Amino acid sequence: MNGARVIGLARSGSHRFSKEPCERLTLIAGYGVADDAHAGATVQHVSRKKKDPHQPNLRQVHLIHSELLDEVAAKGFAIASGELGENLTTRGIDLLALPTDARLRIGDVVVRVTGLRNPCWQIDAFRPGLLAEMIEKRADGSILRKCGVMAVVESGGEIAQGAAIEVELPPAPHRPLDLV
């Protein structure tokens, strides 16, 4: 995973599907992305908050690999960084292959991967037909959800576009990512 980088940053102060691109983000330990609607120690996702507003926020930061954007662009879907609701767009790292609790070090910032984003109906509302590209049925019948990973902030600081990403794997045995 040498050469892994942040190639896009985005945030939104309101709960809307796409986030607004920016050149820098400030991440706050135990809280998330400053000035982003999904930041908070407890769950901020609207439907999850209705069910139990006291559950911990395992979705403080959303990361998507730009290779996914390349893949869907080849199928006619031009998607810019932040448009799928992600805070960080990466290149050169297979986010979906990371185990649960993998840590991503981006300068002074450390985020811990908590699980997969579940692609939802809003993706088709954004671009009709795109949701089908976010879910892949494998030969063994299992489902691959390709819409990025969620993380929590363990060590805060500022991130700029182009920042290098280092991966720290948790102790074995590794647990595969599941939906959060």
From TrEMBL:
SUPFAM superfamilies per record: PK beta-barrel domain-like
Q: Which Pfam families match?
A: MOSC
Q: Cross-referenced InterPro entries, in alphabetical order?
A: MoCF_Sase_C, MOSC_domain, Pyrv_Knase-like_insert_dom_sf
Please list every transmembrane segment annotated in the UniProt record, as residue ranges: none
Tell me where in this chain the MOSC domain is found. Answer: 20-168
Q: What is this protein called?
A: MOSC domain-containing protein
